[in-house]
Amino acid sequence: MIIIGFESSCDETGVALVCTERGLLAHALHSQIAMHREYGGVVPELASRDHIRRILPLTRAVLNQAGLPMERIDAVAYTAGPGLAGALLVGASVAQAFAWARGLPAIPIHHLEGHLLSPLLATPRPEFPFVALLVSGGHTQIMRVGGVGDYELLGETLDDAAGEAFDKSAKLLGLGYPGGPALSKLAQEGDAGRYELPRPMLHSRDLDFSFSGLKTAVLTRLRAIEKESGALDDAQRADLAAATESAIVDVLAAKAIKAVKQTGLKRLVVAGGVGANRHLRKQLIEAAARLKCEVFFPPLDLCTDNGAMIAFAAAMRVNAGLAALDSAGHAFTVRP
Ligand code: KG4
Ligand code: ZN
């Protein structure tokens, strides 16, 4: 069965084709980063309009890539949420129109389930059950994943998400949008030990996080440096970026490892945009190795939002015989 998937929850338009037996066939992505950059963040109205412009050409592109006619598609998947309402509506409308016109099932997919299952698109592919660290711009969660549709929340952020902490700190440092990759790049040249920053909730007994205080700590430190020596020079900026990255990564890694110990599972899966962070990857691999725990990441280009993870999550749900809800709220199951 061939499923086409649409992702349009934020600032990436993604379309992909996944076969329930053969996996990913084709995917195409358009990032709106350049468009939003001059505003320092995502402008929802512009995002929706750009999704409208891009989604059909991307659909044509994936069909061409896979060398398949439209008639070969058996089901349509789309990101139902969470995300920007207007942006989500574009993907949902196109997907439902497509399904309606061709008499196909339309499968709504939770954006986070897409991220959560995306490491299974890589080889080697993790077996269930595993601990998942889901770190995106809007969410920071630790989950026990028993199988497709079997997700137990073990801990989450009480305020800002890890990606938000990266983005907001990057903004304070005068780095452009999106802040996470920019801050991480600058941090490579910096000394993480020069400025001390807090590791919020590092030693709390639970698996929860809190990042809003860290952003304030970065601001306080920034003001203190400015007061002492005027505007930050390049080295100071890089050192503060490194300190920030290190603080965020330390907490994420510590809690993920704590979850591995608590559950006794030997597989840790990292998903979501912040999963692209090299420092986090390295730290997790090293810490997990000491516990003989394997760590899995999505392919680097599928860490941030994309259509492949949405089509793939739908394929996994179909293969598992799981029901989806139709637009009237009635459950239906798609059979391969
Ligand atoms: O999963 P994603 O594409 O979108 C959401 O669903 O939120 O994640 C985007 C987030 C942003 O906050 C971005 O700054 C962060 O992931 N991010 C990174 C890196 N690449 C993306 N943060 C740190 N280091 C990176 N290399
Ligand atoms: Zn996302």
Automatic annotation (TrEMBL):
Molecular function via GO: iron ion binding; tRNA N(6)-L-threonylcarbamoyladenine synthase activity
Keywords: Acyltransferase, Cytoplasm, Iron, Metal-binding, Transferase, tRNA processing
Residues bound to Fe cation: H111, H115, D305
Primary enzyme class: transferase
Subcellular location: Cytoplasm
CDD domains recorded: ASKHA_NBD_TsaD_bac
Cofactor comment: Binds 1 Fe(2+) ion per subunit.
Principal location: cytoplasm
Family: Belongs to the KAE1 / TsaD family.
Record's function text: Required for the formation of a threonylcarbamoyl group on adenosine at position 37 (t(6)A37) in tRNAs that read codons beginning with adenine. Is involved in the transfer of the threonylcarbamoyl moiety of threonylcarbamoyl-AMP (TC-AMP) to the N6 group of A37, together with TsaE and TsaB. TsaD likely plays a direct catalytic role in this reaction.
The protein's name: tRNA N6-adenosine threonylcarbamoyltransferase
Organism annotation: Parapusillimonas granuli
Taxonomy of the source species: Bacteria, Pseudomonadati, Pseudomonadota, Betaproteobacteria, Burkholderiales
